[in-house]
Design brief:
single chain; about 260 residues; 3-stranded mixed β-sheet; alpha+beta; 5-stranded antiparallel β-sheet
Length: about 260
């Protein structure tokens, strides 16, 4: 797991992850995911109890669990995308979430379709939340290995209700990349940076900085239109503006064996 201090140095502010939290996540990852003994002794024979306990709790929880989105044509479309992701993998994903303490479903646009990926607690770093405990800022890490190198994509997302939500460090970073700050609010600012490292648990060096912003209007209305505009800059930096309209008359229904 990449150290939260390295993430904080990049984004210029503290995350909500502490040293104690990170140690706990790393220890449970080793025990429940990798199957290593908790005492770190290679001669210790483990029964894989952490993994078995999490798997059984996940089985009992998801045995008759159903999650649906209802209420409109838009809700039906969202539900079809949701079922495609949740149905085949919900037990395995819930097992990992139980082992590490949390997890996040993160939607993304893939061409004309909606993709959804799952980030476990070792792959994201919460930064801020609102008064209702909704995550408003966070950093997500994707890693791929190529020969002896590891490439880390750092995706920094920040929900902005107004211009005042932009910190001075964020404005300075946009200026360094010769990009203007968002002018339409509310929006979501997304910064992507790629690093190359010799190890999986360190960021390493910044590679060919690629910064783009997706300013997604969070407008709840009855419209169903979508507008997309993309501008390519000579420096290789792309700026994408995506306007998304949602249906307010929809509801999420969750049922289980307990009713």
């Amino acid at each position: 797991m990449i150290n939260h201090a390295d993430i904080e140095n990049i984004i210029g502010c503290k995350t909500l992850v502490t040293d104690r939290m990170q140690r706990a996540i790393e220890e449970w990852y080793d025990a429940a995911i990798e199957g290593l003994p908790l005492d770190k002794n290679p001669e210790t024979l483990t029964l894989d109890l952490p993994a078995l306990i999490c798997a059984e709790l996940a089985r009992l929880t998801t045995l008759e669990l159903e999650v649906t989105v209802e209420g409109s044509a838009r809700a039906d479309w969202i539900n079809s995308q949701l079922q495609r992701v949740i149905t085949p993998r919900r037990r395995r994903i819930f097992t990992v979430a139980l082992a590490l303490g949390s997890g996040i479903w993160k939607p993304y646009q893939s061409g004309s379709k909606l993709g959804v990926t799952f980030c476990n607690a070792s792959r994201y770093f919460p930064v801020a939340h609102d008064v209702e405990d909704n995550l408003t800022e966070g950093v997500f890490i994707d890693t791929i290995q190529d020969d002896e190198n590891y490439y880390h994509r750092l995706e920094w997302m920040h929900v902005l209700e107004r211009r005042q939500d932009l910190r001075d460090a964020e404005l300075e970073q946009l200026e360094d990349y010769d990009l203007a700050a968002p002018t339409q609010f509310p929006c979501i600012k997304v910064v992507n940076l790629v690093f190359r490292s010799a190890t999986q648990d360190s960021l390493g060096s910044l590679r060919a900085p690629r910064l783009f912003m997706e300013m997604t209007e969070l407008i709840i209305s009855n419209a169903t239109s979508r507008s997309t505009a993309t501008t390519e800059l000579s420096s290789g930096i792309s700026v994408s503006c995506i306007g998304i309209a949602a249906i307010s008359e929809s509801r999420i229904v969750i049922t289980s064996s307990d009713g």
